[in-house]
């Protein structure tokens, strides 16, 4: 399993290996299978290598939140562009005279 995640830095790699060895294995033993392609851990590893740790962790957490009953399923690739934070900005300004 170490070779599978060799392209990312040691701290995120340890998190992924720990997830695969504990929570993922426990869920798999209970009959819960991943509903997406690529799997959540592979998605997180690719997001971390493409977009860095913080953005990759945010994308990976969002993917885990979509893996719930009634959530999405099927092919869900990592976005090519780095997702930005969305802020509401005023489009026009009004001044009182």
TrEMBL record:
<keyword id="KW-0472">Membrane</keyword>
<dbReference type="Pfam" id="PF01809">
    <property type="entry name" value="YidD"/>
</dbReference>
<comment type="function">
    <text>Could be involved in insertion of integral membrane proteins into the membrane.</text>
</comment>
<protein>
    <recommendedName>
        <fullName>Putative membrane protein insertion efficiency factor</fullName>
    </recommendedName>
</protein>
<comment type="similarity">
    <text>Belongs to the UPF0161 family.</text>
</comment>
<keyword id="KW-1003">Cell membrane</keyword>
<feature type="region of interest" description="Disordered">
    <location>
        <begin position="73"/>
        <end position="97"/>
    </location>
</feature>
<dbReference type="InterPro" id="IPR002696">
    <property type="entry name" value="Membr_insert_effic_factor_YidD"/>
</dbReference>
């Amino acid at each position: 399993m170490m070779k599978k995640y060799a392209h990312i830095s040691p701290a995120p790699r340890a998190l992924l290996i720990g997830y695969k060895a504990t929570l993922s294995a426990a869920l798999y033993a209970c009959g819960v299978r991943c509903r997406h392609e690529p799997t959540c851990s592979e998605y997180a590893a690719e997001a971390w290598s493409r977009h860095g740790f913080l953005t990759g962790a945010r994308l990976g957490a969002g993917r885990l939140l979509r893996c719930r009953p009634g959530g999405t399923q099927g092919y869900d690739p990592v976005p090519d562009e780095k997702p930005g934070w969305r802020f509401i900005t005023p489009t026009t300004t009004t001044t009182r005279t």
